[in-house]
Amino acid sequence: MVQRRILQFPDGFLWGIASSSYQYEGSNTNNQWYRWEQQGHILSGDRCGVANNWWEQAERDFELAEQMENNALRLSLEWSRIEPTEGRWNSAAVDRYRTILTNLRRRHLKPIVTLHHFTEPLWFAEQGSFARAANVALFVRYVKYAVEALRDLCDFWVTINEPNVYATQGYARGKFPPGEQDTSRALLVLRNLLQAHIGAFYAIRHLQPTAQIGYCLHYRLFDPANPFSLLDRGAASMQENAFNWSPLHASETGHFSFPLNILLKSLTNAPSSRDYHGVNYYTREMVRFDPRLPNELFGRRFICPGAIGNDPGLDNNFGEIYPLGIYRVLKNVYRRTRGNKPLYITENGFCDALDNRRPRAILEHLAMVQRAIMEGIPVRGYLHWSLLDNFEWNDGWSARFGLVEFDSHTQQRIPRPSASMFGEICRANAITETIVERYAPEAMDTIFGTDDLAQQQVPV
Ligand code: BGC
Question: Under 8 Å CB-to-CB from 158, ≥6 apart: which residues?
């Protein structure tokens, strides 16, 4: 009999999708992203509108997640619904979230709940958002209220989604609200967000001693355009340190490492303020030294020429598909935190309307996750971004990340092949040869390790 190969995941591994309130719920008109939209910042001119209509009917999509035999689902609470004006709580919104969480649990989908995923109430934005250190207390007050109201239904919290993206896009690059371009403000915002996580962590810990509490960072790799150039290497490593490792180091030890330590003072009460490391990974960029770009730490970033993803195949050229990157990130986080906590992939995904690249990309990324697990890294779950095509922030509806195709005009849902493949993986708790044969036979050798993907030298 022919021996069939298999990449097995550990028992109890969490499989699911990740989502966020503004991108899925619809009819959120009381936060700073809605205002940003009204000001005409969405590239495609699109509107979020009723989005995927989860405020009314999330449950019909939970059905899809259940059919894929997921056992977890990540969503976020919309702060602007729960506290629409400062200090006034909306119990009807809490009731709706209670129904949503109850319905997830009924389908054996463990709720993983984010308390801040890029959006915040207008009143909070008007008071300077996280650019004012004093506002951290307002966030923590909301966290206490929300957790107290929902703790019987959820025991896995993500305090803040991607502080490094919120700070960089909103305050250094001007791509997210409030659209500022001021690097030192961006750093201050990053520090305040990390401090806000710590405040939220202790508030939740007090209310729910056994909960799993963490936050997730967006990890992006930056590699030198020319690996033999000291200047390119220096610029790439500065970018990677500033974006990934210095914030991680600060959350671990309280102290920012180089280069952020030049401008940022230490955090208070940072060590031990998390139960897991949330890893969002999408892509890497190449970096070439450029003395004209001091604000970019002297590095010009670009997508690797000829890379998969840097071609007309994917929507918007969203970035290179680089599976080895997820392994490098996991290794790095593990090493830098001395393996002190379990890791969860809280996001990983690809925008690919035609679903030409996604099946193979998912398989190859998961093979890398499994490799990390086999090497002893305690990765406990994988949440795919995302279930449906959703409102992709500044890119509106043009970037299609869904396992399921979604038409924002008709609300129609059409599962892509990736959805059935993800279901088969979750059901088997493994990648099997049959799955690879069916969805991406061309990747058989890379996935089962006889080809170079698994053999590549890993620059950790
Ligand atoms: C964000 C998601 C977003 C995804 C794809 C992540 O950085 O958390 O909200 O949709 O990237 O761009």
Answer: 74, 76, 112, 113, 114, 115, 214, 215, 216, 278, 346
Owner of token pair 């830098």: 336
Structure tokens at 327: 């392994």
Q: Which ligand 1 atom minimizes the distance to the CA of 162? A: 8
The answer to whether the CB of 364 is under 6 A from ligand 1 is no
Is the distance from the beta carbon of residue 218 to the nearest atom of ligand 1 less than 6 Å? yes
Would strands 156-161 and 277-289 be described as parallel, antiparallel, or unpaired?
unpaired
Smallest CA-to-CA distance from 341 within 306, 298, 371, 378 is with: 378
Locate the ligand 1 atom nearest the alpha carbon of residue 216 and give its number: 8
Q: Give pTM, 2 decimals.
A: 0.97
Sort 39 into a burial class: Cβ within 10 Å, 0-12 / 13-18 / 19+: exposed
Can you tell me the distance from the alpha carbon of 442 to that of 455, in angstroms, rounded to the nearest whole number? 17
| Mean per-residue pLDDT pooled into runs of 10, the chain (460 residues) | 85 99 98 98 93 98 98 99 98 98 98 99 98 98 98 98 98 97 97 98 98 98 98 98 98 97 96 97 98 95 86 71 98 95 98 95 98 98 98 95 98 98 98 98 92 51
Q: Which amino acid is at 315?
A: D
For the range 34-42, what are the long-range contacts, defined as Cβ-Cβ under 8 Å and sequence gap of 24 or more?
Answer: 35/122, 35/125, 35/177, 36/176, 36/177, 36/179, 41/177, 41/179, 41/394, 42/394, 42/395, 42/396
Beta pairing partners, 382: 15, 345
